[in-house]
Amino acid sequence: MSNGFDATRLANSATRALRAYDPGHDLPALRKHFGAQIAELGSNENPLGPSPRALEAMRNALKESFRYPDPRGLALKTALAEHLGVDVERIALGNGSHELLILLAQCFADAAHSIVYSQFGFAVFPIATAAAGAQPICVPALPHDHARAPYGHDLSTMLGAIHPDTRIVYLANPNNPTGTWFEDTALAEFLANASRDVLVVVDEAYHEYVDAPGLSSALRFSDEHPNLIVTRTFSKAYGLAGLRVGYLIAHASVVAVVERLRESFNVNNVALAGAEAALADGEHLQHSREFNNAEREWLRGKLESRGYRCLPSQTNFLMIDLGGDASALERRLFERGVIVRPMGGYGLPQTLRISIGSRDENERLLQALP
Ligand SMILES: Cc1ncc(COP(=O)(O)O)c(C=O)c1O
Predict the structure, then answer these.
(1) Is the whole-model pTM more than 0.90?
(2) Does the Cβ of 178 fall within 6 Å of ligand 1?
């Protein structure tokens, strides 16, 4: 009951400009409806699930649930520091990398600043910008028929879009929802020409799947460029999306600023234990990567042989471009229990984003397609 009261008008101006996250389909209800026949190909999760070692560690950590988690997450950060070969002071943990992307804008930008990102870049970038009250500079993406990265980031135009008041540039490499990427040489040139007073955030949520020649990680440039921030996650190749653990690697002074605003217990004790054990299970990660990359290229072959245009991808999903409105196709798949992600909200209504599922799910997708 509203009683004539509406708190919207009391919200601050940044929040008034935002809309609540659109969760898409009601997945719990769909799981009940379709049972084992559902193919969940909408959220870029790892169909192999978490490492058994992570499951075991999480079960043990449950016993400590009556305690607050370690607010510094030191055991996980130490393991990450060793894994990445960086000092522990250069790592911050997030409740998913989503939280960190938002925190960075909140900590470093406000109404006096602009933030640069690409059209068709990851959806959280404009939200982080709006939540900080900063001015968005959305740079047109590469054209749909670009040979290497259709709809991808146009780094040279993005560089030219940086203003004197720009505080942050968000780049996703590879990018969601396009799956496209840019090579290390392009990033090196971007960093060499960007002012040190602009924080360059490279979102590497899909890094573990990357095997393209010419692409390694932005981390290789972090010693030379203290304004570079890399974000990563345990949600994708590590198979822990439900746990919500992400991290960033940055100059220690960037981490120190983020720590001022980070909620002290943002990563719970089960998540800390699960992520640490997952990091130690290189075999499961390797298996996830090999399964995904082989399955993705198998699915690409099947789709292309049936006339669907698939964009290049270094991720655990494929974007298909129908050249015309994709909503009827999405509806058809949905009715058959195959859940994929329509892209109208991104301004790409002619495309669908399809996560790589188990072989069984991928076959159900192929059966459901006209
Ligand atoms: C490019 C990209 N960055 C970041 C995220 C956020 O991941 P999480 O908050 O689960 O770490 C996602 C999730 O889909 C993503 O696709």
Answers:
(1) yes
(2) no
